[in-house]
Amino acid sequence: MRPDDRHSGATTAKSGKSSARITQAGATSRWLAKQLYEGAGRPSARVCLWDGTELGAVGNAAVARLRIHNLGTLVRLLAYPDLYFGEAYMNGELEVEGDLVQFLETVYRARHSGRGNGFWNRMTDGVFSRRRRNTLDGSRSNIHHHYDLGNDFYQLWLDREAMQYTCAYFPRADTTLEEAQAAKLDHICRKLRLRAGDTVVEAGCGWGGLARHMARHYGVRVKAFNISGEQVRFARERARAEGLEDRVEYVEDDYRNVSGTCDVFVSVGMLEHVGPEHYPTMAKAIDRVLKPEGRGLIHSIGRNRAIGPMNAWIEKRIFPGAYPPSLREMMELFEHRAFSVLDVENLRLHYAATLRHWLQRYEGHVEQVRAMFDDRFVRAWRLYLAGSIAAFSSGQLQLFQVVFNRATCNDIPLTREHLYPAGGRG
Amino acid sequence: MRPDDRHSGATTAKSGKSSARITQAGATSRWLAKQLYEGAGRPSARVCLWDGTELGAVGNAAVARLRIHNLGTLVRLLAYPDLYFGEAYMNGELEVEGDLVQFLETVYRARHSGRGNGFWNRMTDGVFSRRRRNTLDGSRSNIHHHYDLGNDFYQLWLDREAMQYTCAYFPRADTTLEEAQAAKLDHICRKLRLRAGDTVVEAGCGWGGLARHMARHYGVRVKAFNISGEQVRFARERARAEGLEDRVEYVEDDYRNVSGTCDVFVSVGMLEHVGPEHYPTMAKAIDRVLKPEGRGLIHSIGRNRAIGPMNAWIEKRIFPGAYPPSLREMMELFEHRAFSVLDVENLRLHYAATLRHWLQRYEGHVEQVRAMFDDRFVRAWRLYLAGSIAAFSSGQLQLFQVVFNRATCNDIPLTREHLYPAGGRG
Predict the structure, then answer these.
(1) For A342, which of B339, B346, B350 is closest by C-beta distance?
(2) CATH (domain of B104)
(3) Which residue range is the domain that position B34 belongs to?
(4) How far is the C-alpha of B129 from the C-alpha of B114, rounded, in Å?
């Protein structure tokens, strides 16, 4: 792909004087657009301005067109791309013509290719480094922002069975979303080597699907913590309807307040909301409840490198307080109490696949979403889901499952073969 | 177990005056022995002094007796236990009556139980924190110290087929050493998804067993680096004898000088000799040679926590310059060049099993070892092998296999099922 920065003839001048003005305006906007395109590392896309200026990849090399509707948007994009791309997309001040996921993938890949000038990264790293803190109150408000949007909304596009809002597990490429979420739950249960009668503490249980799955299929008792009131209400109702209320207890409380003792500690998709500054507290909480022979698993979005807070727009609009740690940062949690890490699996392509299912279902129910909220919300969540696919498939985000136990416990299976039974549920 | 600190009547006084002297001497040595025993966290063993003083665990609670032959040894043990336990054992100034491995296991477990006063740790951490540096010259001298003891020596007790001086892989508890080492090599090859025609760079190849195994069974070409002259000579001879010299090249050079490009980077049992201060250099070397779609694996002894240098005696007598990193420290290597970690497996119990085989074979050839070296050497290596079993089985040491690739490469198998074929070689 070679960038093509010719100025299109679409805006031809009407008179001599205004021609000079327009040419000058065209030259300025073209120069700005070029900064944007080059600074972003020359993604395989075309940039089109309101005045007809076009540049970027040509022909088949362009997977999509980014259409910027006015100068203000272009300037804001140059100043704070991480934040304002999302804001402008949400507000309709720019459009992506073509496949949104492919467009975001090429932007991610180009940005981290080393071709760019690091401009986008530099501009955003400093300005938006103030994450909303996950204190006890802060966490409650941050979690409410995202997870209390209404169970009806999430039911439109999550799997119908277990309501899992975390990475599924696709043993084969043609596994359905429902199958893949059940497979994820079983994969986790096998990693934890659940035995009938075990007691389980779950930190951050979402709509309670894992806890119910464990109780139903593995004969264990689960105490599951969550600070999202909407989710806990839903989880309790489901458990009652399924006759599991004697084996699953949902507690509306913070993971820092876990109590009692357990054979198994599990946390799926919560660590992203904890923040590295609270990892010692989390390690302490696990250390407090886990029995000497206990097993644990933490499942979390992560990154290959600790590069400060998440994308600024995601942090502002979607996930306040979220922070995907690098594996090194995650290890600080385990090292803090000298837990022994037994197994780490990176499932990032499974998350890309999961998100593709979610986006497809979301688009299938987009009119209902619009009726529940508004068009800005529809566009914001489309961008968030598409951007997440791009982040996982381009290798910007990872999904780590970490199995651990206590350093002195020798009850460890010799191999991981038990995770891969020939047939169904192990 | 309750410590029993009564003074045995073995040394009864002969006269009034000398009785007072002896009683006082006895009281002092008993007090010192008690400091040693309590400070070590009250291991399940009995301490017996030259003067008949006995204390510690009683009856079946004592797995062994530590017999200390003189006051000087007791004092040195109190001052620098990490170093002088090994020195005194090697010199015959103390004996362990009973099972040496069990004795060392209870010492390890007691020491890290929190019952002790941290005395042993405190005393050693500061004093022996100067590791011998692994500069280009330093590494050569450090590696020569251990690996150039003579191939004849290692052939006495390593597996006969592949001469592997690293952790084997036991799919079943009754796997033989030869089978387990071959299984380890295949496990690594499967993790690396070797394809016929691939080019492999190996950093730190020992006697070259992995390189030959890869070339013979997977049809790849291997360039294997090692700075131990003795090992490289042996490896080349074997490759010639087995008709593999056109597919395996052994290079007597440092990993920092790896060159060319490769589909696969592998390093088994070398990272322990690199030192965290050189991880960025190692990451740079990998980054230089690994193709964009390349795969990598690093296999290394590790720890649950970064607690400074290794045991002082091991560092002085056995492995100068060695440093087993915590997983967090290992992650610094990968994070340095934003490699993506795909899979981590902790095989510590496999290393305990491997070492048990080695120790058994070593004891079976102990007269030959004595003839090659001397009795101090025999005792030093017995302690080293037994101590390593205890360290892995009590959870003081870990064995990490880490699979990685480049962040942008999506050629990743969906599951790890291919590592567990029902039958033999994959």
Answers:
(1) B346
(2) 3.30.1050
(3) 16-127
(4) 22
Write out the H or E segment, with its range, that includes residue A87.
Answer: helix A81-91
Has residue B5 been placed in a domain? no
From chain B residues 300-319, the ones with a CB under 8 A of any chain A CB are: 304-306
Q: List CB contacts of A228: < 8 A, sequence separation 6 or more.
A: A143, A144, A147, A148
Cβ-defined contact of B395 to A412 (cutoff 8 Å): no
Q: What is the pLDDT of residue B8?
A: 45
Q: Name the residue type at position A229.
A: G
Distance CA B173, CA B22 (A): 53
Last residue of a domain, one of A127, A144, A176: A127
Interface touch A395/B408, C-beta < 8 Å: yes
Q: H/E/C letters for each residue in B231-270? A: HHHHHHHHHHHCCCCCCEEEEECCHHHCCCCEEEEEEECC
Q: What is the pLDDT of residue A420?
A: 95
- A31 vs A18: CA distance, rounded Å: 19
Residue B372 lies in a domain: yes
Rounded to two decimals, what is the model's pTM? 0.91
Tens digits of per-residue pLDDT, B205-262?
999 999 999 999 999 999 999 999 989 999 999 999 999 999 999 999 998 999 889 9
Nearest to B341 among A344, A416, A419 (CB): A344
Where among A127, A147, A174 does a domain terminate? Answer: A127
CB–CB contact A340 B407 (8 Å)? no
Q: How many whole angstroms from its chain centre is CA B33? A: 29
Q: Is B347 exposed, middle or buried (0-12, 13-18, 19+ CB in 10 A)?
A: buried
pLDDT at B24: 60
Residues A382-419 have pLDDT tens digits of 999 999 999 999 999 999 999 999 999 999 999 999 99
